[in-house]
């Protein structure tokens, strides 16, 4: 969300550098931590992409929402950017989407062309005061990202670390909820109207997710469980039971 032209100008560097460094992925239930490389598909913010009540899918809606701005003008912030961020956050709240980040891009060249500008960190401070409450880390500064300088690279590295951390946190949370919903669906398999085909699609999506993360052993576990469940239904059917 936010300044689409700004994001477009930074996207090639972002998409190239994001998966470069691995992240340690820690999960619950005593599972051993693993190192994974994160690749993300960035899409323009639209309300219809947000998950709806009862949506069981894991790969069809965005996890982390990012607002991009390079505003350094007092009046522009007051009259335009502040209202735009407010509308964006209200939509997220309406859909119970709590994972977000605001990125303020600072450019010395842009500041030189402005007369009514705030001191270096004032816009960031205003955004944090207006929107972040106790989550001040949800607003980050990206300094001269297109410059070839040590300051620019340090800024990129700090931003990428923050982005990877938030992406992994959000993904892990959504994955955990998906697995809980899947277990609840599996526990209903003895109830009338339960569909093995519907359940198969849900657990197969979980397997696809593990494949995307190159966690092939975890993906195989999902298929093994589906095979065992299907085999049990075949046995039940042969013994005169019903096979949904």
Characterize the quaternary organization of these chains.
single chain
Tell me roughly what share of residues is in helical segments: 40-55%
How would you state the average pLDDT, rounded?
A: 84
Number of helices: 7
The strand order across the widest sheet is 3-4-5
User: What is the radius of gyration computed over CA atoms, rounded to a whole number of angstroms?
Assistant: 23 Å
Strand-residue proportion = 5-15%
Overall geometric form? elongated
CA-CA gap between termini: 44 Å
Number of structural domains = 2
Poorly predicted regions are: none
Main pleated sheet: 3 strands, parallel
Class based on secondary structure composition and strand pairing: mainly alpha
Q: Can you put this structure into words, describing what you see?
A:
This protein folds into two domains: 170 residues, no CATH class; 51 residues. With 244 residues, the chain is mainly α. It is built from seven helices and five strands; from the N terminus they run αβββαβααβααα. The strands form two sheets. The chain has a three-stranded parallel sheet with strand order 3-4-5, sandwiched between helices. A two-stranded antiparallel ribbon has the order 1-2. This is Trafficking protein particle complex subunit 10. It holds the Pfam family TRAPPC10_1st. InterPro entries: TRAPPC10/Trs130, TRAPPC10/Trs130_N. One of its GO terms (cellular component) is cytosol.
